[in-house]
């Protein structure tokens, strides 16, 4: 019993660490395509915040959904996963907006250029 809990926690931590590293690199290098930053610090913090959010959600879902799927079925686990994603996305969007309003992040969305 204890070994299975340790295995789940260890695999969740590994998923979190790997996802955080990969997602940070993706956000840091691709976010200038769609966002204008006031300084390099804002770009770094925005990438860290989004990477932390998505890697945390992936780690939680990685730990929770297989057990739910085995116990209650695929539809229940998909519904729980969707609810977790929607709630945490709302929190993340509110956090980024509050940081921008407070002046901690200096950024805005780039204007689209239509041909």
- Arrangement of strands in the largest sheet: 1-2
Q: Report the strand count.
A: 2
Could you describe the largest sheet, including whether it forms a barrel? 2 strands, antiparallel
Give the overall form: elongated
Distance between the termini: 61 Å
Poorly predicted spans: none
| Helix percent band | over 70%
Written account of the structure:
78% of the residues lie in helices and 5% in strands. The chain contains three helices and two strands. The chain has a two-stranded antiparallel ribbon with strand order 1-2.
Give structural attributes:
115 residues, mainly alpha, two-stranded antiparallel sheet, 78% helix
């Amino acid at each position: 019993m204890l070994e299975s809990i340790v295995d789940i926690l260890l695999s969740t931590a590994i998923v979190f660490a790997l996802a955080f590293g990969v997602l940070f690199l993706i956000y840091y290098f691709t976010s200038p395509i769609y966002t204008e930053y006031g300084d390099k610090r804002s770009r770094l913090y925005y990438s860290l915040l989004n990477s932390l959010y998505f890697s945390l959600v992936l780690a939680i879902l990685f730990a929770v959904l297989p057990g739910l799927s085995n116990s209650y079925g695929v539809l229940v686990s998909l519904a729980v996963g969707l609810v977790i994603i929607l709630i945490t996305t709302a929190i993340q969007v509110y956090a980024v907006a509050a940081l921008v309003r407070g002046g901690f992040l200096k950024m805005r969305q780039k204007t689209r250029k239509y041909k």
